[in-house]
Design a protein that fits this description.
Length: 573
């Protein structure tokens, strides 16, 4: 289908354009009262690599990996990206029978016989990692937590936390330092050695190994110095088994949390100039740096108000800390958890401020937040490699219970479709001009409370035959508002015509939650209803694909984008 172009004089700011087409649902096709938001994308002006920062996911409960819905979701995550998807998971060395529970999991990898001699059992670990490797995914192999036989304070060991309980109840015997650092080091060595034997050196070299999680809070019941000691022993063991392995840390919480900035700085200082506890020499090898970043939603007058500012501040502060060490400035950085708030297993029933999670607020927040990661990395001139969305699935729980997950009972939620959109982007980021866009500084000043955050991120594929523009209409307040009218001016297209595919996440598209509500919110949906929900959870086109013509590589598109909506314009030629 070809579109006739309107005279250039129709749009005063886009006088150089040859024409326009409108992209909106029939109910949204009428122009809004507000003036159009002008966005210009220049595909001929590269801005840097479109690093797949979004191809990282994580969760507390490793045993969900091998369960039915976990297996299905892993397959979908692996399929959404041409780049390898990395998976980070807790409790890989925790003692137990492999039963999954909230914020708990176990593999029983390490026990001891009656004489205190190590007994290694990699069966459950292998089942989990096999699930990743068979799908072309890569583990961020977490060295943690402390096996019961090695814990310096093993009793009580297993916790039985559930949503609504005191969060501190989870910090039991697994969170303590080892009673024998040499035995810990040997455990690490045996795991890496076993992985090389099972998967091959070439494969394991592509993994990321890391030590522990959030050692500045209850996840680590030792001192910062004891964590540094644990890292030194772990580093020696990892690289003794595989010199080319990549090991990082310290996975502190966001720098705004309890002593996180101090612990992060102290750890980096130790790696650069401290005395190595394992070797007695100066410094410790560090292959990448990790820390977390979280937002802070709350209820305001009966609705959810998000707070992206705290997440952006965590990222900005953490990147600046890393950049302050000249020896480490170019090391890869991974945001080990990058989320709107802190507890994935806290559902809506116990935490009503998490009510954003089922619908489009989560998806629009994610689009706006991940797009800013590129800006922050550029501003700090650091090597940001990835950002882990701490969200997976909670097996056998009520439908749409409001956990921070990507799917419920095997049905994908709207937020997963943002990652599918991002998976269609790659190659080089290109220039976007948007006079009304919010800067990072605006976000830090809570401008998203006052006005909508309407923005764009664009890229050109490495093969030069496709491009993509991600658009979002986000606001911190979960309140209804008119759709925004966007005028998207495209420049630098190297073809006289291009096939346009317009993908959309909003109330009617790519949204299993509103479909579920429309079915009466069933907790025992029929087979037909399940099929309907599964289809609604997939990424949907707003309109049929259509050919657009360009004049000297230019065109203009008109997009009606609802509040909390996300669009992806994919062009190919």
């Amino acid at each position: 289908m070809r579109f006739r172009f309107f005279p250039a004089s129709i749009r005063r700011w886009a006088g150089f354009l040859s024409g326009a087409i409108a992209l909106g649902t029939p109910s949204q096709a009428q122009p809004t009262a507000a003036a159009p938001v002008p966005i210009t994308v220049d595909f001929a002006k590269p801005q840097g690599a479109m690093q797949p920062l979004w191809a990282y996911f994580g969760y507390d409960e490793p045993n969900y990996t091998t369960m039915k819905d976990g297996q299905q979701l892993l397959t979908e995550l692996a399929a959404l990206s041409p780049a390898p998807v990395y998976v980070r998971v807790h409790n890989m060395l925790t003692t137990g029978d492999g039963t999954a529970a909230f914020k708990w999991g176990s593999t029983n990898a390490y026990t001891e016989d009656k004489k205190g001699r190590p007994v290694y059992d990699w069966k459950i670990v292998d089942q989990i990692f096999d699930s990743y490797i068979q799908r072309g995914m890569k583990p961020i192999a977490q060295l943690g937590f402390m096996p019961e036989a090695l814990s310096s304070h093993p009793t009580p060991y297993r916790h039985h936390w559930k949503p609504g309980d005191n969060y501190n109840d989870i910090y039991t015997g697994w969170a303590y330092p080892p009673k024998d650092y040499a035995k810990w080091g040997e455990l690490v060595y045996q795991w890496v050695k076993h992985s090389v034997a099972r998967y091959g050196e070439a494969e394991v070299k592509t993994w990321r190994w890391e030590l522990w999680n959030e050692p500045n809070i209850g996840y680590w019941k030792g001192t910062p110095e004891e964590y540094q000691k644990l890292f030194d022993y772990s580093e020696a063991a990892v690289h003794r088994a595989l010199p080319a392995a990549s090991l990082g840390g310290p996975e502190t919480t966001g720098p705004g949390w309890d002593k996180a900035a101090e612990v992060l700085k102290g750890f980096l200082e130790h790696c650069v100039r401290g005395t190595n506890y394992a070797t007695g020499k100066k410094g410790t090898r560090l292959d990448f740096v990790t820390f977390h970043a979280k937002g802070a939603p709350k209820l305001v007058d009966g609705h959810v108000r998000m707070n992206m500012a705290t997440q952006m501040k965590d990222i900005q502060t953490g990147l600046a800390i890393v950049a302050s060490f000249p020896e480490l400035r170019q090391l890869p950085i991974i945001l080990g958890e990058n989320d709107p708030e802190g507890c994935a297993a806290c559902g809506v029933q116990t935490n009503p401020d998490n009510a954003y999670r089922n619908g489009t607020m989560f998806s629009s927040y994610t689009a706006a937040a991940y797009a800013r990661l590129y800006t922050l990395a550029d501003q700090n001139q650091v090597n940001l490699l990835g950002a882990v969305s701490w969200s997976f699935e909670f097996e056998n729980q009520p439908w749409f219970a409001g956990f921070r997950d990507l799917a419920t009972n095997g049905v994908d939620k709207p937020v997963l479709n943002v990652f599918r959109m991002l998976g269609m982007m790659g190659g080089q980021r290109v220039a976007v001009t948007n006079p009304q866009a919010l800067s990072v500084a605006d976000i830090l000043n809570q401008a998203q409370n006052q006005r909508p955050d309407i923005g764009a991120l664009a890229s050109v594929a490495a093969d030069g035959h496709s491009a993509a523009v991600l658009l979002w209409n986000y606001h911190n307040d979960d309140l209804p508002a008119p759709a925004a009218d966007l005028e998207v001016a495209l420049q630098g297209l190297p073809a006289s015509q291009a096939l346009l595919q317009h993908y959309r996440i909003d109330q009617e598209h790519s949204n299993s939650y509103t479909t579920w509500q429309g079915l009466g919110s069933p907790q025992s949906p029929s087979a037909a209803q399940r099929a309907t929900l599964a289809q609604a959870g997939q990424l949907a086109l707003l309109t049929s694909p259509a050919w657009i013509s360009t004049q000297q590589g230019r065109a203009v598109l008109h997009v009606s984008l609802p509040r909390q909506g996300v669009s992806l314009l994919r062009l190919s030629w």
